[in-house]
Write a structure and sequence with these properties.
With 166 residues, this protein is α+β, with helices and mostly antiparallel strands. The chain has helices spanning 24-34, 56-66, 120-126, 150-165; strands at residues 43-47, 73-80, 108-119, 134-138. The longest helix is centred in the C-terminal third of the chain and has 16 residues, at 150-165.
Length: 166
Amino acid sequence: MAMSMINVEVYRRSTDNAQDHSSTESVMLEFIEADDKLDGDDTFILLQATSVFTTADDIIRGLDAIDDEDTDSVLSCIESKQFFWSHEGKSLNYDYVQRPRRQDFNGQLIENGAFYINKVQSILDDKNRLSGNIKPIIMPSYTSIELDEPDDWIIAESIMQKLNKK
């Protein structure tokens, strides 16, 4: 199998965009404005380093989706068949009087934060990672684990051990 060389450049964000309160969008816009090689029609992929279970197949499915003329941007999600309630005691996504069985419940999609795909011009115009007609790419539920807290490592290592046994 032949290996191709990939050139990687590290972008060092500005001090202003390296603060605890800095938004991801502000860093994306800074990067786009600093890179004179980017064109408005270029596809921008935001990958979150804390989402360690993202696969090349997930990203390929996202890129295939953004190529669809009816899709403007893409985000990664997981399916949830949880029953949600408000703090005021109201059911939010089902009728509790006619409670469905979980296996019959469509549930909802939850952003897992693994990746977002959009066109450079749309990010510049809307100042957001998502815009227009948004298509979710569904990933396995375990991909919602993000390495943000020490306990997340324990959970992720356990999942990785299980995946490696397959």
